[in-house]
Amino acid sequence: MLKVIRAALSAVAALAAVLLLPPAEALAQAYPSKPIRFVIPFGAGSASDALARIAGQELEQLLGQPIIVIQKPGADGAIAASEVKRSAPDGYTFLFGTNSPLAVVPNMQIDPPYNVVADFAPVTFLGENTFFIVVHPSLPVKSLAELMAFANASPKPLNYAAGNTYALVSMAMLAANNRIELEAVRYKSEPDAMTDLLSCRVQLMNGTTTSVASHVKAGKLRALATMFAERSPLMPEVPSIVEAGQRTLPIGPWFALVGPAGLSPEIVGAMNKAMVAVLAKPTVREQMLKHGFLPRSSTPQELAAYLKDQLAIWKTALRAAGLEPQ
How far apart are CA 295 and CA 47, in angstroms? Predict the structure, then answer.
């Protein structure tokens, strides 16, 4: 009986302590109390899907609530971002986003469906992804220089698959830098693009490690270069873009976590703290590195400044690639 009374008194004391907290602190202590949604801008099997699930599994253990990955591919990520923009700012819906919805859509659409700075609450930078330029093995080229020469001599433009905006813009910039013609074939997500590349409906692609590495190792695709200035340890035999005779591009593929505008600083802080801890875990980093993803966190303030910079950088890059808003 005494144990029951003591337990009841402890519960009352705990409740009283919470009630005496300032509202913001009480909210932070109670959060999260239900499943959290990570909305991603690409489909099943994409790098976004794989990375969100890796982070989500660890986050579940840390927060004690399920992380549900919601795939909303299409419109370069604008569909996913718009859903998060419309969500209640209660800390239960986030965009596990990329440069596509957060830097490119606002610069590629004359009337974009959202304002990145005004409509989203930055939480943390997540990291950068590794891309490889790959070709179908039927193409008679074994280096990036040979690809440029082959494309220049071709009577019609080669088709390249673009399953995201980095693939689209980077290849357009590469074509402009080398004065060759390439024709983009656009897809909602990389897995769809990969199907056509493997069947040679398109000849080449700039793709994520997640999508291309296994096919390169199986001999179904040929890798010509990685887009980074240094070789990737995942395919060290593949030259860097610099070693392949090209200059690095001012744009890069990256990920960031944002919520809808109006999120309380306490919830932003709680999610930032949790994600920073997740990205620092050796097991998480190891899993992400296998996908060619280089995890790196930030403060919300650092991400806010980064997003503003990237909006300007991508605007310039799009014009250099000859891509005007539509």
Answer: 13
pLDDT tens per residue across all 326 residues of the chain: 434 334 444 444 444 444 454 554 555 568 999 999 999 999 999 999 999 999 999 999 999 999 999 999 999 999 999 999 999 999 999 999 999 999 999 999 999 999 999 999 999 999 999 999 999 999 999 999 999 999 999 999 999 999 999 999 999 999 999 999 999 999 999 999 999 999 999 999 999 999 999 999 999 999 999 999 999 999 999 999 999 999 999 999 999 999 999 999 999 999 999 999 999 999 999 999 999 999 999 999 999 999 999 999 999 999 999 998 88
Number of H helices, E strands in the chain: 14, 11
Rounded Cα–Cα distance for residues 248 and 17 (Å)? 56
- 131-226: in CATH 3.30.565.10: no
Q: Which fold has domain 34-129+252-320?
A: D-Maltodextrin-Binding Protein; domain 2 (3.40.190)
CA distances in angstroms from 130 to 98, 250, 280, listed in the order given: 13, 15, 19
- Neighbouring CB atoms inside 10 A of 67's CB total 22
